[in-house]
Amino acid sequence: MRQAAQRDLKILTEIAARDDVTQRGLSESLGIALGLTNLYLKRLTRKGYVKITTIPANRLKYLLTPRGIAQKTRLTYEYVSFSLVLYRETRQRLREALQPIASEGPKRVALSGTGEAAELTNLTLKEVGLDTVAVYADTPASTFLDLPVRPLRELVNADVDRIVVVTFSAGDRLIEQVTRLGLPREKLILLGGQLARGA
To answer: Taking 80 as the threshold, does the pLDDT of residue 174 lie above it?
Structure first.
């Protein structure tokens, strides 16, 4: 799904969900400048998706038009379809990467990271017959997957056979941090931004 379509969906959803939506509020939720938010709202208004009224005279109110509701529905369907395809492709890439470990015999596997990518990886590990025995992160939470989250630096002394480092970010900062720890390359399974970029 195009970035512009995702942005339009987010704006239309915010307007539909809240009576008191403001340009400033939209700007903050989108993470963009106020002037850019104004430009996007004007574009959606020109297309007939949004109507701007003044109630009271000094306050703007944004309303979805029937055409805007139809566009929001279409974009929501497109987003859900895109997400399902991305999910299936990511799970397939994870299976292809993790299956060889399972076929080598029992392995004590640790996850590095606590985000959505780590959740998908844990599901896939279970699917190929492996269990996550430990979780490490650069900013530890208290628990993740019902396991205590340990600081990343403790990976050096971890009693595990493999460490799966997986992120959806293109920057792969987590992968850089883990490889800087000096862990043996044969222990690491590095799955990074290619999961997000490949789909």
So the answer is: no
Structure tokens that stand for 93 in this block? 């890439």
CA separation for the pair 110, 178 (Å, rounded): 12
C-alpha span between 7 and 9 (Å, rounded): 5
Residue written as tokens 């993790």?
Answer: 98
Q: For residues 109 and 135, what is the distance between their CA atoms, to the nearest angstrom?
A: 9
The CATH homologous superfamily for domain 101-198 is NAD(P)-binding Rossmann-like Domain (3.40.50.720)
Coil, helix or strand at residue 105: coil
Query: Which tokens hold the place of 166?
Result: 């997986």
Is it the case that residue 197 has pLDDT exceeding 50?
A: no
Both structure tokens of 54: 């003044």
